[in-house]
Amino acid sequence: MKYTKTQLEAVKEFLYKIADDQLILGHRDSEWTGLGPVLEEDIAFSSIAQDKIGQSLHIYEILHALGEKDPDTIAFTRNANEFKCCHLVEYPIGEYDFSLIRNFFFCHAEHIRFNMLAESSLDPLAKLAKKYRGEIKYHVMHADTWVKQLGRANEESHKRMQDTIDNSFNLALGIFEESPFTSELNSMNIFEGEKTLQNKWIEAILPVLEKAKLVLPDPADWKPAYGGRTGTHTEYLQPMLEEMGEVFRLDPKAEW
Amino acid sequence: MYENAYVDPKQKVSSLTEGEDPVKLAEFEERIQRGEKIEPKDWMPKAYRKQLIRMIEQHAHSEIIGALPEGTWITRAPGFRRKLALMAKVQDEVGHGQLLYSAAETLGKTREDMINDLISGKSKYSNVFNYPAMTWGDTAIIAWLIDAGAIINQVTNSKGSYGPYCRALERICSEESFHLKYGHDNVVFLATGTPAQRELVQDALNRWWTPIMHFHGPPDKVSQHTEILMKWKVKLATNDEMRRKFLDEYVPKIWDLGLSIPDPNLKKNEQTGQWEYTEPDWDEFKRVINGDGPCNKERLQVRRWAEERGAWVRRALQKAEQKYTVPLA
Q1: What is the reported pTM?
Q2: Chain B residues with CB inside 8 Å of A41's CB?
Q3: By residue range, what is the domain housing residue B51?
Q4: Which residue, A45, A119, A128, A238, shows the most beta carbons closer than 10 Å to its own?
Q5: With contact defined as beta carbons under 8 Å apart, do B3 and B66 qualify?
Q6: Distance, CA of A216 to CA of A35 (rounded, Å)
Q7: pLDDT (tens digit, 9 = 90+) per residue, B240-264?
Q8: CATH number of domain containing B299
Q9: Contact B101, A39 (CB under 8 A)
Q10: Is B2 a member of any domain?
């Protein structure tokens, strides 16, 4: 497909956003390896992390085909201001409740996004979306199972879950920061838009939270953490990227 | 350690079977002689059970403690290919821990008790993980040569007599063989790469040679009680036999890559067919295994911290009416 300059910019911005979210959250989730509350969770978080990083790689490959640098260079040498990920994925793993709720919020949104993208006119992305929504379904099931268990198990776990939802919901809303290219993406039939995605997302998470006896914050307090999509990030992203690229940057021309 | 059986040298050999019913003991030994596997509900001597719990438990601990030095490099692995492979490898190691804790549980000790013994320092794990993985080169050497040593040990032990442990080891070995390929590939890229990459891997090999030589445990001349443990197929080869097998398979491969091994006396005696080498510092081995290694404190602190931090999650999984039952496999 031949794109105009603006259309190409729109497509790239959109792909970067999705891939960067997956890479950064995959990286964070991998930090649980060896440290989980039960061995089974070390293993589960690692599987989820591997899926997400693998998916990001394939989207960077689409970007490479559109003229961007190769996936390793894109992922391992950019600085924070060149990343388009949302703030939610950047935060350190924190306590298990935060990492779990983060995955719960993010994976639901990602699952819906990939379902929407399965019908996208951007063919390579639609193909990936069809393949990967099957993987993400399990990430959603994992998060739902734990959220329901911990939301209802005892007072301590319930309180942790509710506090974490209250403290991280605005970060989650940052996933849906509207793109300056919304109308281009829409008219090209690539993606319907973040607003639609957010509405579907609320519909998807509410029934799970209800079963878990958890609630979302009052809409009056919804203050989305925007900025990530335009390269403004939390203090946590740059150090994470420096760590991630530490060996690669020793000699980016070398084969590792 | 990924471990060879071991009995306190001060303990009398006869004490291992003291008080056992001689008829049952003879039947048990005949079954092993015939190549049958002993299963969880079968009769077994107390010393056999104790040895196996100790071995399997320490093996499980080694897997999850071993995930720490390599795990810290997941976040720094250079490039997608290495990052994804290392994540999968370390995940496998944790999975092996899970599998082995289950195998040990069939002998009557709970995972919780085993982990408590690990973090209190009562129970040991492979000594090599008390050394730091200082560079990316170290992770490559660990994935290749430590895993190679472990495979030699595990393949040997998978021919043992206790069913659940053997079955766990068979699965573990098939996964470990991929780790070995990953580790070798990683070392090949470094050894044949830029001068800086080559230096990285040579430095790592120099640092890791002593722990590698320690890996299979003290020399046979100081180990005791081997006979009865071999008869019970708890121990299937001596420490020196496994070390020689390792040297036989891997020294030529290391030399092929143009890497040097920091032992001027290392050579194969063409007449005897045996490897000759400088005995590594066994005092250092004892010091480290008794808690005075470069990372002992850190490893246990991290594990303790993870246990404490995750305690609320485990509490939320408990149901008052549920009772613990010993799994059968």
Answers
A1: 0.95
A2: 310, 313
A3: 22-315
A4: A45
A5: no
A6: 29
A7: 999 999 999 999 999 999 999 999 9
A8: 1.20.1260.10
A9: yes
A10: no
Counted domains in chain B:
1
Q: Which residues of B touch A (CB under 8 A)?
A: 64, 67-68, 71, 74-84, 87-88, 90-91, 94-95, 97-98, 101, 136, 189, 193-194, 196-197, 302, 306, 309-317
Residue B33 in domain: yes
Q: Retrieve residue B307's tokens.
A: 């246990």
Q: How far apart are CA B105 and CA B43, in angstroms?
A: 16
Nearest to A157 among B80, B306, B316 (CB): B316
Helix (H/G/I), strand (E/B), else coil: B268: strand
The answer to whether position B291 is within a domain reads yes
CA distance A187 to chain B (A): 34
| A contacts of B71 (beta carbons < 8 Å) | 33-35
Q: CA-CA distance, A116 to A126, in Å (whole number)?
A: 9
Place of tokens 């107390």: B46
List chain A residues with CB under 8 Å of B313.
37-38, 41, 96, 150, 157
B312–A247 CB contact, under 8 Å: no
Total Cβ atoms within 10 A of residue B127: 21
Given B71, B76, B94, which is nearest A246 (Cβ)? B76
Domains, chain A: 5-218+226-250 (1.20.1260.10)
In a domain, B50, yes or no: yes
Question: How many residues are there in chain A?
Answer: 256
